[in-house]
Write a structure and sequence with these properties.
The protein has about 230 residues and is an all-alpha fold. It has helices at about 20-35, 40-50, 50-55, 60-75, 85-100, 105-110, 115-130, 135-165, 170-185, 190-200, 205-225. Helix 5 packs antiparallel against helix 7 (about 115-130).
């Protein structure tokens, strides 16, 4: 029986009452502070001041714990709006904000479908907003938006982590490697890239995300209109 269907143990008088919600909340706090490497059943038990074996009545494996953590974050993602475009835009923006609050979340999305109740509720809202659109368009359109968001937020989180690891923000990194690129472009071997770097728009992360999302939604709209 999957964790979503398995009942929790009955309440009983103990010094430190437990629930899956409390366990997941403690695990999320650990991951928010120090990443997924900081999450284990033993460490979660220590935060809750209980023995590790008590957790196994609620969660059988670390994989179940991670699934519950992901679903708890999906509770923060509430796609809303009038019409499919607003709802897909809302889904993308809300997912990005959630990943910024919980960087580890970006490491756990994009694989096999998540099946938790909050995740399914979000999916229901998105599919319902596509009502009236042919399923041959609906399914790949939603998949395309999800793929775009996963790729974009992973890139942003990777940049954040690189800044912390190197002590260099994006501008400092560009200043450090700028002379190398100038020398390389001066050879004339990469004229198209040189034009982009020198003359192209240099958008910040917010504008980059929203511009790319608009391109994608414009393409979906064109397909629906055909």
């Amino acid at each position: 029986m999957l964790v979503w269907e398995r009942p929790e143990p009955s309440d009983r008088p103990v010094p430190a009452p437990l629930s899956r919600e409390r366990i997941v909340g403690a695990a999320i706090r650990l991951a928010d502070a120090d990443g997924l490497a900081a999450v284990s059943l033993r460490k979660v038990a220590a935060v809750l001041d209980v023995g590790p074996m008590r957790l196994y009545g609620y969660i059988a494996t670390k994989e179940e714990l991670l699934d519950l953590m992901v679903d708890a974050v999906y509770a923060e993602i509430r796609p809303a709006g009038d019409g499919w475009r607003e709802v897909l835009h809302s889904l993308a923006e809300a997912t990005r904000r959630a990943a910024h609050r919980h960087e580890w979340f970006a490491d756990l999305i994009g694989g096999r479908p998540q099946l938790g109740p909050h995740t399914l509720a979000g999916g229901e809202a998105v599919v319902a907003a596509m009502g009236g659109v042919d399923l041959d368009v609906t399914v790949p359109a939603i998949a395309a938006v999800n793929a775009y968001v996963v790729g974009a937020v992973r890139r942003e989180i990777t940049e954040r982590r690189a800044e912390r690891a190197t002590g260099m923000d994006k501008q400092q990194w560009q200043a450090a490697f700028g002379p190398y690129l100038e020398r390389t472009f001066a050879t004339g071997r990469f004229p198209a890239l040189a034009t982009v770097v020198r003359d192209g728009p240099h958008l910040d992360a917010d504008r980059t995300f929203r511009t790319g999302l608009d391109f994608l939604l414009d393409g979906i709209e064109a397909r629906i209109s055909n």
